Amino acid sequence: MEITFQDDSTLGEGSFIRVFRSGLRFGKIFHTADVFRFYEGEQEKLGGPDLQDREIERLKVAIVHRYRQ
Q: What DSSP line would sit under 10-60, residue for residue?
C-alpha cells in the first residue's frame, strides 16, 4: 500500500498535511508547538497523536514504515 502526502489547509484547521494510503484519505499531520503530529482519521484525538516528531521528514518515514502494509 502506497503512502503519499499532500499539503492542504482549511480556514478552521489552518495548514496541515493530508496523508493518503492507496489513494484514500488516511490521516493528517499537524504542526503545533514545534512538533509535527500525525493522527489517523480526520480529527485530532484525545490522548495524543498516533506518531510525532520534531522533523517532518523523519515523521513521514515513520508513518510509511508503520502503515505501509
A: ETTTEEEEEEEETTEEEEEEEEETTEEEEEESSS--TT--SEEESSHHHHH
